Amino acid sequence: MKIETLVNLTGGELLNSPYISEVTSFTDKSELTSRGTCYFVKDKNDIENAVKNGAYAIVSEDYENIIDNEIAWIKVDSIQKAVIDIFKYENLKTKIHFCNEITRDLIDKMSLNSNVIVIKSYEDLLKALNVTHKYLVTSDKNFSELFSNVEILKPKEIDLIKISLFKSKFENVEINLPYVYKEEFAKALKFFEDNSLKYTVEFELERFKPVFVDFKLTPVAYGESEKVLICGIKNDKYFFKELNYFIENTKHAKSIVVNEENAYLLKKGFNFAMLVDFEFDFQKKEEESLL
Q1: Which long-range contacts (CB under 8 A, 24 or more apart) does 3-10 make?
Q2: Which residue among 175, 203, 231 closes a domain?
Q3: Which DSSP symbol is given to 33?
Q4: Which of 42, 153, 245, 262 ranks highest by number of CB atoms within 10 Å?
Q5: How many C-beta atoms lie closer than 10 Å to residue 147's C-beta?
């Protein structure tokens, strides 16, 4: 991208008359800068390192001390807006695949392709700027609105068998997928297959993640205890679907739903405990058990 274009797109102020005329990549991490990079400043202390690594442009929200007059120094009102404006310009004809958060996380975990980029933050937009022939996925409407070509992911018919509360069988392979996420898994599969992309079924979601614990609530190996904490659950639009699945499949065990207000229930007897908007501090618990 030409420096003139970069300045116009960001509405920035060019602070010097640089020798270089264009940049070839973008990052906000000084350790990732190389010859030709446009570096977006997050920490002023990293500017010198970015220049040393070969940055051709420094974009900042402040007036910086120009330590190399051969490269471009550009002041903008907002780094985040600058990244978004550059991204929109560079991706006018790019398609984005839109899905819910669980499908998004499945695609992220399953993908074996460097050109599949899941967009959760503006830093991901920067990553996408440096990739050609990319496949973009997001669950954030704010990001999907940057595109004119939006494809909503749909499921396909799949043969998925529930093995246990936490595992399913797909094409005779046991996978770490709670059956409650069958539709989301089907959407992820269709995304990979429709685009001839490589994927793996060796993954584990952070949501509905089982952690087996002993009577002191210290983690043990999978299946080595009758006590299980189910982590990563949020009180959001997926919660009641997950709760119904949890209740239906733990009828013959002592099951509880725990949040910060009733965390004391974990000190009592249970087989399954679904933690909702509650992150159990296993490290702290392990330290207490040593006292």
Answers
A1: 3/57, 3/72, 5/89, 6/38, 6/57, 6/59, 6/72, 6/74, 6/86, 7/72, 7/74, 9/82, 9/85, 9/86, 9/89, 10/59, 10/74, 10/76, 10/81, 10/82, 10/85, 10/86
A2: 203
A3: -
A4: 153
A5: 20
HSE (CB half, 13 Å, CA atoms) of 132? 2
Q: Please name the residues in contact with 244: beta carbons below 8 A apart, sequence gap of 6 or more.
A: none
What are the pLDDT digits (tens) for 76-129?
Answer: 999 999 999 999 999 988 999 999 999 999 999 999 999 999 999 988 999 999
Structural domain boundaries enclosing 269: 209-289
- Helix%, strand%, coil% for the chain, nearest 5: 30, 25, 45
Question: Global pTM?
Answer: 0.88
Residue 184 lies in a domain: yes
* Separation of alpha carbons 165 and 153, rounded Å: 26
- Which of 88, 78, 68, 79 lies closest to 136 in space, CA to CA? 88
The Cβ of residue 183 has, within 10 Å, a number of other Cβ atoms equal to: 16
Helix (H) or strand (E) holding 160: strand 160-162
Q: How far apart are the first and last CA of the chain?
A: 60
Residue at which a domain ends, from 171, 203, 235: 203
Query: How many domains does one find in the chain?
Result: 3
Burial class (CB in 10 A: 0-12, 13-18, 19+), 49: middle
CATH number, domain of 68, equals 3.40.1390.10
- Are 97 and 115 in contact by the 8 Å Cβ rule? The answer is no
